[in-house]
Specification:
InterPro entries: ATPase_NBD, ROK, ROK_cs. It comes from Streptomyces eurocidicus (Streptoverticillium eurocidicus). This is ROK family transcriptional regulator. Belongs to the ROK (NagC/XylR) family. The protein has two domains: 115 residues, Nucleotidyltransferase, domain 5; 162 residues, Nucleotidyltransferase, domain 5 (2-Layer Sandwich). Helix content is 37%, strand content 18%. The longest helix is centred in the C-terminal third of the chain and has 25 residues. The protein is of the alpha/beta class and 308 residues long. The mean pLDDT is 93. It has a five-stranded mixed sheet, with helices on both faces. A two-stranded antiparallel ribbon has the order 1-2. A two-stranded parallel sheet has the order 3-6. A hairpin with a 5-residue loop joins strand 1 and strand 2. Helix 5 packs across helix 7 and helix 7 packs across helix 8. The structure holds zinc ion.
Length: 308
Protein backbone atom coordinates (compact mmCIF):
# COMPACT_ATOMS: atom_id res chain seq x y z
CA UNK A 1 0.00 0.00 0.00
CA UNK A 2 1.72 3.14 -1.17
CA UNK A 3 1.01 6.73 -2.04
CA UNK A 4 1.20 5.98 -5.77
CA UNK A 5 -0.06 2.44 -6.17
CA UNK A 6 -1.75 -0.44 -4.41
CA UNK A 7 -0.06 -3.67 -5.48
CA UNK A 8 -1.01 -7.20 -4.52
CA UNK A 9 0.21 -10.69 -5.36
CA UNK A 10 -0.17 -14.32 -4.45
CA UNK A 11 3.29 -15.39 -3.24
CA UNK A 12 4.43 -18.98 -2.74
CA UNK A 13 6.86 -20.39 -0.16
CA UNK A 14 9.82 -19.84 -2.51
CA UNK A 15 8.96 -16.18 -2.90
CA UNK A 16 7.60 -16.60 -6.43
CA UNK A 17 4.79 -14.25 -7.45
CA UNK A 18 2.02 -16.41 -8.93
CA UNK A 19 -0.65 -13.78 -9.61
CA UNK A 20 -0.43 -9.99 -9.56
CA UNK A 21 -2.94 -7.15 -9.24
CA UNK A 22 -2.44 -3.40 -9.11
CA UNK A 23 -4.42 -0.16 -8.92
CA UNK A 24 -3.38 3.47 -8.69
CA UNK A 25 -3.87 4.90 -5.20
CA UNK A 26 -6.65 7.53 -5.16
CA UNK A 27 -4.50 9.30 -2.61
CA UNK A 28 -6.45 12.57 -2.55
CA UNK A 29 -9.85 10.87 -2.10
CA UNK A 30 -11.67 9.99 1.11
CA UNK A 31 -10.80 6.89 3.13
CA UNK A 32 -13.62 4.73 1.79
CA UNK A 33 -12.60 5.42 -1.81
CA UNK A 34 -9.02 4.40 -1.05
CA UNK A 35 -10.33 1.21 0.56
CA UNK A 36 -12.43 0.48 -2.54
CA UNK A 37 -9.20 0.40 -4.55
CA UNK A 38 -7.66 -2.05 -2.05
CA UNK A 39 -10.80 -4.20 -2.30
CA UNK A 40 -10.44 -4.17 -6.09
CA UNK A 41 -6.92 -5.58 -5.81
CA UNK A 42 -8.16 -8.28 -3.41
CA UNK A 43 -11.02 -9.20 -5.76
CA UNK A 44 -8.59 -9.66 -8.66
CA UNK A 45 -6.42 -11.97 -6.54
CA UNK A 46 -9.41 -13.86 -5.15
CA UNK A 47 -10.57 -14.65 -8.71
CA UNK A 48 -7.47 -16.84 -9.18
CA UNK A 49 -7.64 -20.63 -8.79
CA UNK A 50 -4.65 -20.30 -6.43
CA UNK A 51 -6.67 -18.20 -3.95
CA UNK A 52 -8.00 -21.34 -2.24
CA UNK A 53 -4.42 -22.20 -1.21
CA UNK A 54 -3.79 -18.84 0.45
CA UNK A 55 -2.94 -19.34 4.15
CA UNK A 56 -2.28 -15.81 5.30
CA UNK A 57 -2.36 -12.20 4.14
CA UNK A 58 0.51 -9.79 4.64
CA UNK A 59 0.22 -6.03 4.22
CA UNK A 60 3.18 -3.73 3.77
CA UNK A 61 1.91 -0.15 4.03
CA UNK A 62 3.40 3.28 3.73
CA UNK A 63 3.93 4.57 7.26
CA UNK A 64 3.32 5.32 9.91
CA UNK A 65 1.54 2.08 10.68
CA UNK A 66 0.48 0.75 14.07
CA UNK A 67 0.80 -3.02 13.91
CA UNK A 68 -0.37 -3.33 17.52
CA UNK A 69 -3.73 -1.74 16.59
CA UNK A 70 -3.92 -2.84 12.96
CA UNK A 71 -4.16 0.75 11.74
CA UNK A 72 -2.34 2.80 9.12
CA UNK A 73 -1.83 6.55 8.62
CA UNK A 74 0.21 6.88 5.41
CA UNK A 75 1.70 10.38 5.24
CA UNK A 76 0.85 10.66 1.53
CA UNK A 77 -2.74 9.38 1.91
CA UNK A 78 -4.48 12.01 4.07
CA UNK A 79 -7.84 10.19 3.93
CA UNK A 80 -6.39 7.44 6.09
CA UNK A 81 -5.51 8.52 9.62
CA UNK A 82 -5.62 5.67 12.12
CA UNK A 83 -7.44 3.73 9.40
CA UNK A 84 -8.35 0.16 10.48
CA UNK A 85 -6.82 -1.49 7.42
CA UNK A 86 -6.27 -4.90 9.05
CA UNK A 87 -9.94 -5.20 10.07
CA UNK A 88 -11.12 -3.96 6.65
CA UNK A 89 -8.91 -6.46 4.82
CA UNK A 90 -9.71 -9.30 7.26
CA UNK A 91 -13.43 -9.15 6.52
CA UNK A 92 -12.68 -9.48 2.79
CA UNK A 93 -10.39 -12.53 3.02
CA UNK A 94 -12.67 -15.06 4.72
CA UNK A 95 -11.00 -15.25 8.12
CA UNK A 96 -7.42 -15.70 6.97
CA UNK A 97 -4.90 -14.17 9.39
CA UNK A 98 -3.73 -10.69 8.39
CA UNK A 99 -0.29 -9.31 9.29
CA UNK A 100 0.59 -5.62 8.98
CA UNK A 101 4.09 -4.18 8.70
CA UNK A 102 5.42 -0.87 7.45
CA UNK A 103 6.55 -0.90 3.82
CA UNK A 104 10.14 -0.34 4.83
CA UNK A 105 9.99 -3.30 7.21
CA UNK A 106 8.40 -5.42 4.45
CA UNK A 107 11.18 -4.53 2.02
CA UNK A 108 13.72 -5.34 4.72
CA UNK A 109 12.14 -8.76 5.34
CA UNK A 110 12.39 -9.49 1.62
CA UNK A 111 15.98 -8.34 1.23
CA UNK A 112 16.98 -10.30 4.34
CA UNK A 113 15.15 -13.43 3.14
CA UNK A 114 16.50 -13.57 -0.38
CA UNK A 115 18.09 -10.27 -1.40
CA UNK A 116 21.11 -8.09 -0.78
CA UNK A 117 20.94 -8.40 3.04
CA UNK A 118 20.78 -12.20 3.01
CA UNK A 119 23.12 -13.66 5.59
CA UNK A 120 23.81 -10.22 7.14
CA UNK A 121 23.20 -10.02 10.89
CA UNK A 122 22.92 -6.21 11.03
CA UNK A 123 21.46 -4.25 8.14
CA UNK A 124 19.49 -1.15 7.28
CA UNK A 125 17.28 -1.50 4.22
CA UNK A 126 15.71 1.57 2.63
CA UNK A 127 13.05 2.29 0.04
CA UNK A 128 13.66 5.61 -1.74
CA UNK A 129 10.63 6.37 -3.85
CA UNK A 130 7.62 8.71 -3.48
CA UNK A 131 8.63 8.63 0.18
CA UNK A 132 11.61 7.21 2.03
CA UNK A 133 11.10 4.21 4.30
CA UNK A 134 13.34 1.70 5.95
CA UNK A 135 13.75 -1.24 8.26
CA UNK A 136 16.37 -2.91 10.39
CA UNK A 137 17.85 -6.34 10.82
CA UNK A 138 19.63 -6.49 14.19
CA UNK A 139 21.37 -9.52 15.61
CA UNK A 140 20.18 -11.61 12.68
CA UNK A 141 16.50 -10.83 13.20
CA UNK A 142 14.01 -8.46 11.60
CA UNK A 143 13.57 -5.67 14.17
CA UNK A 144 10.07 -4.23 13.78
CA UNK A 145 9.63 -2.34 17.05
CA UNK A 146 6.36 -2.44 19.03
CA UNK A 147 4.22 -0.82 16.33
CA UNK A 148 6.10 -2.04 13.25
CA UNK A 149 7.91 1.21 12.44
CA UNK A 150 11.50 0.68 13.59
CA UNK A 151 14.03 1.85 11.03
CA UNK A 152 11.76 4.54 9.58
CA UNK A 153 14.77 6.51 8.42
CA UNK A 154 12.84 8.79 6.07
CA UNK A 155 11.71 10.91 9.00
CA UNK A 156 15.01 11.36 10.75
CA UNK A 157 16.02 15.03 10.51
CA UNK A 158 19.34 15.61 8.78
CA UNK A 159 18.84 19.38 8.31
CA UNK A 160 17.83 20.92 11.64
CA UNK A 161 16.29 24.12 10.22
CA UNK A 162 15.41 22.66 6.84
CA UNK A 163 12.14 22.65 4.93
CA UNK A 164 9.02 21.51 6.74
CA UNK A 165 8.20 17.87 6.03
CA UNK A 166 4.60 16.60 5.66
CA UNK A 167 5.21 14.73 8.96
CA UNK A 168 5.57 18.10 10.74
CA UNK A 169 9.30 17.97 11.40
CA UNK A 170 12.01 19.82 9.50
CA UNK A 171 14.77 18.66 7.20
CA UNK A 172 13.78 14.98 7.13
CA UNK A 173 15.73 12.60 4.89
CA UNK A 174 12.53 12.13 2.87
CA UNK A 175 12.05 15.89 2.38
CA UNK A 176 15.43 15.98 0.65
CA UNK A 177 15.90 12.53 -0.93
CA UNK A 178 12.49 11.32 -2.14
CA UNK A 179 11.81 11.21 -5.88
CA UNK A 180 9.37 14.16 -5.89
CA UNK A 181 11.82 16.25 -3.88
CA UNK A 182 14.71 15.43 -6.23
CA UNK A 183 12.53 16.58 -9.14
CA UNK A 184 11.26 19.68 -7.30
CA UNK A 185 14.76 20.79 -6.36
CA UNK A 186 15.99 20.33 -9.93
CA UNK A 187 13.04 22.34 -11.32
CA UNK A 188 13.54 25.10 -8.74
CA UNK A 189 17.20 25.37 -9.78
CA UNK A 190 16.38 25.73 -13.46
CA UNK A 191 16.31 22.19 -14.85
CA UNK A 192 13.65 21.82 -17.54
CA UNK A 193 12.06 18.56 -18.70
CA UNK A 194 12.55 17.35 -22.26
CA UNK A 195 9.95 17.40 -25.05
CA UNK A 196 8.00 14.54 -23.39
CA UNK A 197 7.33 16.80 -20.39
CA UNK A 198 8.49 14.10 -17.95
CA UNK A 199 9.36 15.91 -14.72
CA UNK A 200 9.90 12.80 -12.57
CA UNK A 201 13.07 11.92 -10.65
CA UNK A 202 13.76 9.34 -13.39
CA UNK A 203 13.81 12.16 -15.94
CA UNK A 204 16.17 14.13 -13.70
CA UNK A 205 18.38 11.02 -13.48
CA UNK A 206 18.42 10.74 -17.28
CA UNK A 207 19.47 14.39 -17.52
CA UNK A 208 22.17 13.81 -14.89
CA UNK A 209 23.50 10.88 -16.93
CA UNK A 210 23.76 13.29 -19.84
CA UNK A 211 25.89 15.63 -17.73
CA UNK A 212 23.24 18.20 -16.71
CA UNK A 213 24.85 20.01 -13.76
CA UNK A 214 21.58 20.97 -12.06
CA UNK A 215 20.26 17.42 -12.29
CA UNK A 216 23.52 16.04 -10.91
CA UNK A 217 23.43 18.52 -8.02
CA UNK A 218 19.90 17.49 -7.07
CA UNK A 219 20.95 13.83 -6.87
CA UNK A 220 24.09 14.76 -4.94
CA UNK A 221 21.97 16.59 -2.35
CA UNK A 222 19.69 13.55 -2.04
CA UNK A 223 22.76 11.32 -1.66
CA UNK A 224 24.08 13.61 1.08
CA UNK A 225 20.84 13.29 3.07
CA UNK A 226 20.81 9.52 2.67
CA UNK A 227 24.46 9.32 3.71
CA UNK A 228 23.82 11.33 6.86
CA UNK A 229 20.88 9.07 7.78
CA UNK A 230 22.85 5.89 7.11
CA UNK A 231 25.82 7.20 9.10
CA UNK A 232 23.55 8.01 12.06
CA UNK A 233 22.10 4.50 11.92
CA UNK A 234 25.53 2.87 11.64
CA UNK A 235 26.73 4.88 14.61
CA UNK A 236 23.69 4.00 16.73
CA UNK A 237 23.34 0.28 16.07
CA UNK A 238 26.42 -0.87 14.12
CA UNK A 239 24.97 -1.99 10.80
CA UNK A 240 27.25 -3.79 8.34
CA UNK A 241 25.33 -2.94 5.22
CA UNK A 242 22.80 -0.42 3.93
CA UNK A 243 20.60 -1.76 1.15
CA UNK A 244 18.80 0.81 -1.01
CA UNK A 245 15.84 0.08 -3.25
CA UNK A 246 12.83 1.94 -4.61
CA UNK A 247 12.42 3.87 -7.85
CA UNK A 248 15.06 6.49 -7.02
CA UNK A 249 17.68 3.74 -6.56
CA UNK A 250 17.07 2.97 -10.25
CA UNK A 251 19.25 6.02 -10.95
CA UNK A 252 22.18 3.69 -10.24
CA UNK A 253 25.59 5.31 -9.91
CA UNK A 254 24.04 8.77 -10.32
CA UNK A 255 22.85 8.17 -6.75
CA UNK A 256 25.23 5.51 -5.42
CA UNK A 257 28.55 7.16 -6.33
CA UNK A 258 27.90 10.42 -4.42
CA UNK A 259 26.22 8.42 -1.64
CA UNK A 260 29.35 6.33 -1.02
CA UNK A 261 31.52 9.45 -1.19
CA UNK A 262 29.32 11.39 1.26
CA UNK A 263 29.14 8.43 3.61
CA UNK A 264 32.86 8.83 4.16
CA UNK A 265 32.15 12.40 5.36
CA UNK A 266 29.57 11.34 7.96
CA UNK A 267 30.35 7.74 9.01
CA UNK A 268 33.66 8.66 10.56
CA UNK A 269 34.05 6.48 13.65
CA UNK A 270 35.93 3.24 13.11
CA UNK A 271 32.97 0.94 13.80
CA UNK A 272 30.69 2.88 11.42
CA UNK A 273 33.16 3.66 8.64
CA UNK A 274 33.01 0.21 7.06
CA UNK A 275 29.31 0.16 6.28
CA UNK A 276 28.70 -1.13 2.75
CA UNK A 277 26.07 0.39 0.46
CA UNK A 278 24.37 -2.07 -1.89
CA UNK A 279 21.45 -1.79 -4.31
CA UNK A 280 18.41 -3.85 -3.40
CA UNK A 281 18.05 -7.07 -5.39
CA UNK A 282 14.30 -7.57 -5.37
CA UNK A 283 13.32 -4.39 -7.15
CA UNK A 284 9.72 -3.36 -7.24
CA UNK A 285 8.60 -6.74 -5.85
CA UNK A 286 10.35 -6.39 -2.51
CA UNK A 287 7.27 -5.04 -0.72
CA UNK A 288 5.11 -7.88 -1.98
CA UNK A 289 7.64 -10.62 -1.17
CA UNK A 290 8.41 -9.08 2.22
CA UNK A 291 4.76 -8.66 3.23
CA UNK A 292 4.26 -12.33 2.39
CA UNK A 293 7.38 -13.26 4.37
CA UNK A 294 6.13 -11.32 7.39
CA UNK A 295 2.71 -13.02 7.20
CA UNK A 296 4.26 -16.47 6.79
CA UNK A 297 6.48 -15.92 9.82
CA UNK A 298 3.49 -14.73 11.83
CA UNK A 299 1.65 -18.01 11.31
CA UNK A 300 4.80 -20.09 11.75
CA UNK A 301 5.12 -21.25 8.14
CA UNK A 302 8.83 -20.51 8.17
CA UNK A 303 11.49 -18.36 9.75
CA UNK A 304 13.71 -15.94 7.93
CA UNK A 305 16.92 -17.98 7.58
CA UNK A 306 19.91 -17.08 9.70
CA UNK A 307 23.29 -16.42 8.13
CA UNK A 308 24.34 -19.42 5.98
ZN1 LIG B 1 9.35 13.92 8.06
Amino acid sequence: MGGTKIAGALVDARGELLVRAQRPTPAREDGATVMDAVAGVLETLAASDDWARVRAVGIGSAGPVDASRGTVSPVNVPGWRGYPLVAEVARRVAGRPVTLVGDGVAMTAAEHWQGAARGRANALCMVVSTGVGGGLVLGGRLHTGPTGNAGHIGHISVDLDGDTCPCGARGCVERIASGPNIARRALDAGWRPGPDGDRSAAAVAAAARGGDAVALASFERAAQALAAGIAATATLVEIEVAVIGGGVAGAGEILFAPLRARLRDYATLSFAAGVEVLPARLGADAGLVGAAAAAAQDIGLWQVPEAP
